[in-house]
Fold Cytochrome c biogenesis protein ResB.
Amino acid sequence: MSKTTTGKTPTGTPTGTPTGTPAGTPTGPPEGTASAAEDQDLGAAGSQLSTAPKEEAPNLPSLGVIGWARWFWRQLTSMRVALLLLLLLSLGAIPGSLIPQSGVDELKVEEFRENHDVLGPLYDNLGLFHVYSSVWFSAIYILLFVSLIGCIVPRTWQFVGQLRGRPPGAPRRLTRLPAYTTWRTAAEPEQVREAALALLKKRRFRAHTVGDAVAAEKGYVREAGNLVFHIALIVMLIAFAWGQLFKYEGNKLIVEGDGFSNTLTQYDDFKSGNLFDPDHDLAPFSFSLKDFHGTYEPSGPNRGTPRIYEAKVDYSEGAYGDEKPTTIEVNEPLEIDGSKVYLVSHGYAPVLTIKDAKGNVVMDKEATALLPLDSNVTSSGAVMVRDGYRNAEGEKEQLGFNAFFVPTYGGEGSAMYSTFPALLNPTLALSAYHGDLGVDAGFAKSIYQLDKTNLEEFKDSDGELFKKLLKPGETMTLPNGAGTVTFDGVREWAGFQVTEQPGSGWALAGSVAAILGLAGSLFIQRRRVWVRAVKGPDGVTVVEMAGLGRSESAKVPEELGDLAGVLYEQAPDTLEIPDAAEVPDEAEAPDAPDAPDAPHDDGAPKNDDGAPKNDDDTPDSPDTHVVPAEGAEK
């Protein structure tokens, strides 16, 4: 028994002209018609390897509202327009990153307007100070959303139809496909087809028998990944829009021993989405800061770097919930009823006792939070006495102090900067003022900065601004018996950010799904394989295998070669194929005219007696349309 593998379809067709047909008369369809039919057959074999919309010839819409609406819808739902809208959305987000946004930092927006007389009004008119809520950005966003839906819905139904259908049958001429191989075997065609069907199903192909061939297809995950990617984009767009409309974010600075209740008036600053209602949508909870604990690297190149930042709090859910202790750390927020409480900052609050000229206490051991200026927590701020103070003449006044605090002072003669963030040598510098703080005028003012418009300086003996350095426990006496200030100690404060971002989980899931879908559409190839087994003119089974992929790839010939090699070994043999020299010609050619006795040298190898040499290793002439599959030849 022997098997042969060749790069062309075995021949055995009788030569000459069939009986009853005049010589030179065409016996089949015209050449142009046959070629067109073969092209149509090959096109059908490669059809529906993708769910991309078919390219149609340009066809101007008919006049009328319906025609123009249909034309506009086709343009909007085309992939070109979707990519253009996605590009415009990316370009539109650039101003939102470069220009101050009113929803993020209103102070920077006002500063930009004051410093730019021309650009400020222009940006206002274009909505560049609130890009993500502007009309033009929302229009791009909505059009992209509609375009994606218009692209995905028909492709999804088409893909479902392909899943419910079967791979198309084999083309008439498999030799025209880009990956092709063939061989002869003694097995019956039915046995070869059964073996091919079992092999392809084992390799997870969707396979079935159509006529004299087995049709198989694989790689549906590619198109599924493409659809998943686009659906994930829609999920991300919806999640992003939902989060922007219903989100809220607020910050609160809390000194040790103080508390916070989740109401609008308790926040230092607060911002929310357009559809968020602070009066009804804020989750009811409260918490109090019991202790803040921080440690730092004591030496080395990372000296002063925080090692531990944690805030110990007691919290309760609802109006009458029981208090529960917990610890909030950096990137480990407290989650309560959909809201998250993050630890975002830390600083110090000097504790002061202030008395007026008659010794009456007007500030009793109150802590005033100061804002840090550097990584070593050098801090500055203002101390204000708004009510209850009377000067030496008994007149009502207000006191104000510029405060500068360092947790680790370098010593006498050193600059007023901290050398370490921990409380190793705390020192407080105060400069005193009296008069009107301006806090009763009805305008919003910063509590961390003095408005000196209506304030007068306390003068020392040299006529200079009265100021002094204080250590914990020391007291400063104001000039002219105006009162005293005692530095009682230091308490720590922690800054918390309370946020609620609905839709963030969906946005994360959409991002992961988009990455997986994109990977599937890029690295998985959809391809088809056909195996045809028929009896040749000499009674021997001729097996043909061909493959077709959606795009040019070396994987299709490699996979076809692997399948052909396995099928070549697995196809059952039923009889021995005699050598070619022993097989008589079943179809004799018509007698040729008499020729001269002179030998005719056709260039073929001959034996010693002049007879043609039978060399089974000499391959047939290759078909110019055939590309043998790698690994199939043996």
Summary: The chain has eleven helices and 23 strands.
